[in-house]
Specification:
The chain is an alpha+beta fold and 418 residues long. The chain has helices at 17-25, 37-44, 59-68, 116-121, 144-150, 159-165, 168-180, 187-195, 205-216, 221-230, 235-238, 244-257, 263-271, 275-284, 289-299, 310-320, 322-335, 342-349, 351-354, 364-368, 376-391, 398-415; strands at residues 3-6, 32-35, 52-55, 72-77, 82-87, 90-96, 98-102, 109-112, 131-132, 137-140. The protein starts with a strand and ends with a helix.
Amino acid sequence: MSVARVLEDAPWLKSGPTARVLELLNSNGEEARVVGGAVRNALLKIPTGDIDIATTASPTEVIRRAREAGIKSVPTGIEHGTVTLVVDTQPFEVTTLREDTETFGRKAKVAFGRSWIVDAQRRDFTINGLSVDADGVVHDHVGGLDDVAAKRVRFIGDPDRRIAEDYLRILRFFRIHAAFGAGAPDRAGYLACIRARAGLASLSAERVRMEMVKLMVAENAAVAIAAMVDGGLLLPVFGGVAYTGPFTAMIAAERSLGLQPDAVRRLGALAVAVTEDAKRLATRLRLTNAETKALDSMGHRWWRLAGMDEATARRRLYRLGEDRYRDRLMLAWARAGGDAGSAQWRELATLPERWSAPKFPLKAADFVARGIGEGPALGHVLALAEDAWLAADFPLQETALKAIADQAVTRFNRDHRL
């Protein structure tokens, strides 16, 4: 049975780019509605993000109308009925209503249709199966309104069938629950995910990464991750142990410091104990080079940061840089339990806010003037001097720097005479 209600506080439906697209498509016997996440978010009174539109009009008709209105159209997925319209630099994915004619995973054959009910019933979750028309009327053909109110994430129809259509829906179930759900995951959906977990092996690394990165920063990520671990759903993804305690502690540490959630930092807390873990994750999730380097740095002897005095912490900060220092320090903090010695951990974590590392003041010319020739020898003596400068706590006085330079040259010459 279909249910409808009026969406309050949605001015973007009445004016602006969204209203213009709906007006373009709502004429001459065709209808268009905003569908999916934007409707869900509007009901939850959170930012809508991307706005997707469904229509009874065929893709060729959408393109024709856009051309006549002077609107740019891009056939981004025209074989599946999707055309992207760009209005005032804002993109809208416009998809013709569809119905499955044959179902076999992501390659299901679809036909264009005109039934809003059938189109809603082929979507993944009830809270994503809602649509809203240009007048602000929300149409619910799958029980999504009640589930939005209850913050409950349920598959539409039979969970086993929905998952078999696309095994990525296992990860989406937990990611959507982490972002919009409350309490424990829906029992029927949870058990279906466990039954189908072998299907995770069929997913591309890129698709898995996309979902896991979003899950890491969701509001209730800790609850979703704990459920995944209990159900044996992370081992096929990570290929190794998941540490829920440090993951929860990392979230608490971020919040304590007022930091924005960071997907890579949280992934490190969840799955990286040593640098080998970072390399494995980088391969399994097809991480970017920057993400791989960040995880590798976090896993490199993080335990040495526990119990540092501030002088040692300054040397670590100088060597690592602000971001690498904070991430590795927070991994050590999370693995210590998050609350253990929290005052000291907070002092160490906030060091970059109180102190900026000076630049190493000695230059190559200082050592050339002392008889060191160009080449590897010069690099070696510079490194010796820099180490001594750090050990002396970053002095900047000319006399101290002269002594450090002289000592570095003396040591280099002594070592190379042996």
